[in-house]
Write a structure and sequence with these properties.
This protein has six helices and twelve strands. By secondary structure, it is an alpha+beta fold. Strand 5 and strand 6 form a beta hairpin. The radius of gyration is 25 Å and the shape is elongated. GO terms for molecular function: catalytic activity.
Length: 283
Amino acid sequence: MNSFVRIIKKLNQKLMRIVTKWSLLLLWMSFILAACQKDNVIQLKAAAYNVEYSKNATATEIGEALKSFDFDVVCFSEAPGGDWTKQVGKALGLPYQVVGKYTTAGHDDKYKTIVSRTPLYDQEEVLMADTLHTATKAKTKINGLEVTIYAVHFPFGWRDQAHIDETTNKISTFVDYLKMRQESDVSVVAGDFNFVPSNSEEKNQYYEMFKTIGMDVSWTALGIDCTKSNTYNAMEPEDQSNGEVIDHIVYNPSKMKVLDGGIIEMQVPLSDHKPVWALLELK
């Protein structure tokens, strides 16, 4: 009987050692799997900033003000020509840049430009019916996945109905361009859109155009009430929280999700607009 008990004890000890080894192996494998999954996560931290042709601060000052956010890509509107974008990119630590071909509405020093951590290629100027309003487009790759970036500065129709109709046609032209590429492209559109998104009290036809093709502003996912915030006019204290959130990061929620983002409040504004940003993760 004692011999049988000893045998059972030895078998139990061997079994426990085997179980312990397998438990450690499974734990090690779970750590490896988690690390691999983390490595496969593709994120893009994007920002947009209308710098008001850099009249209130130099390119270096603007870049240094944003550097701590560690952006991957920044889309500028109303950016000066020349080497301004190269200078702001250097201050931001973003070595790759493209400068749009046309200035907004034909004004001096109001280009759309892009700076990026990763190389930019296939630059294109997408016409919104004419050269007065365009989207500056470039592609980049993040962990091997191609992402298309658009820097925009939309027109604002206000003079009369003809001016409003012209604006509507231009925005519709650009949205149609995006619509044809939604299935194949992963795209981010960032800049000064000159419209406030729809809310419970009022719909905006231009915002609804983007919704129709499956795109949305980052504010929706972030739960930010645009009626209680503003991105314009940063220079006027009385305009604080006036609902003029007209600068956006637009993306396709079926392909990306928003993890974080917001409006950057500067103690001393460097432009009449506030920078906006969003941390996006590809699904």
